[in-house]
């Protein structure tokens, strides 16, 4: 296992099993860039804030790995993020929605490029419509 895989696994652990935002921030370089469905985030403090908002919204989450790959300084994970929305959810607009108390299971893909033991580039892809639909936040979503 290479350095990229080690850092990616450490990040996943810190976001789910241990929910340790200090470790999350330490996984990223100071000038890291993250691309998420919500847009581009620059700087590890801002990236950690993005993850804080997600872990506040879904505090007891888990990750089910479907596929792991490492090539050089890049690690790729595909899997399912699961949990229950028990905290406020901050939308890309800045609007905060009350917790729905609904369970989610969303397939996603994370790609992390690591240099000197820190993530310098991070990309997160998941289906926002599927996520919002499972939360019951779309018109005509099942109750």
Major sheet summary line: 6 strands, mixed
Give me the side-by-side strand order of the main sheet.
2-1-8-7-4-3
Structural class: alpha+beta
Runs in which pLDDT lies below 50 for 5 or more consecutive residues are: none
Mean pLDDT: 94
Question: Could you give a quick summary of the protein structure above?
Answer:
The protein has 143 residues and is of the alpha+beta class.
Describe the structure in your own words.
By secondary structure, the protein is of the alpha+beta class. It contains 4 helices and 8 strands. It has helices spanning 3-15, 21-27, 44-57, 128-134, and strands at 28-36, 39-42, 62-71, 74-84, 89-90, 96-97, 103-115, 118-126. Strands 2-1-8-7-4-3 form a 6-stranded mixed sheet. The chain has a two-stranded antiparallel sheet with strand order 5-6. A hairpin with a 2-residue loop joins strand 7 (103-115) and strand 8 (118-126). The chain is globular. The relative contact order is 0.19.
Outline the secondary-structure elements.
Elements lengths: L2 H13 L5 H7 E9 L2 E4 L1 H14 L4 E10 L2 E11 L4 E2 L5 E2 L5 E13 L2 E9 L1 H7 L9
Parallel strand pairs: 1-8
Antiparallel strand pairs: 1-2, 3-4, 4-7, 5-6, 7-8
Helix pairs in contact: 1-2, 2-3
List keywords for this structure.
globular, 143 residues, 42% strand
């Amino acid at each position: 296992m290479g350095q990229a895989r080690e850092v990616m696994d450490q990040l996943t652990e810190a976001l789910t099993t241990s929910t340790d935002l200090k470790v999350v921030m330490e996984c990223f370089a100071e000038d890291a860039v993250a691309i998420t469905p919500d847009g581009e985030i620059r700087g590890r403090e801002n990236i950690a804030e993005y993850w804080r908002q997600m872990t506040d919204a879904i505090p007891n989450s888990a990750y089910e790995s479907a596929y792991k790959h490492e090539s050089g300084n890049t690690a790729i994970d595909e899997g399912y993020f699961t949990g229950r929305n028990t905290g406020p959810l901050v939308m890309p607009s800045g609007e905060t929605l009350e917790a729905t108390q609904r369970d989610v299971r969303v397939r996603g893909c994370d790609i992390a490029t690591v240099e000197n033991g820190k993530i310098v580039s991070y990309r997160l892809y998941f289906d926002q419509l599927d996520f919002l639909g499972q939360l019951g936040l779309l018109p005509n979503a099942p109750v």
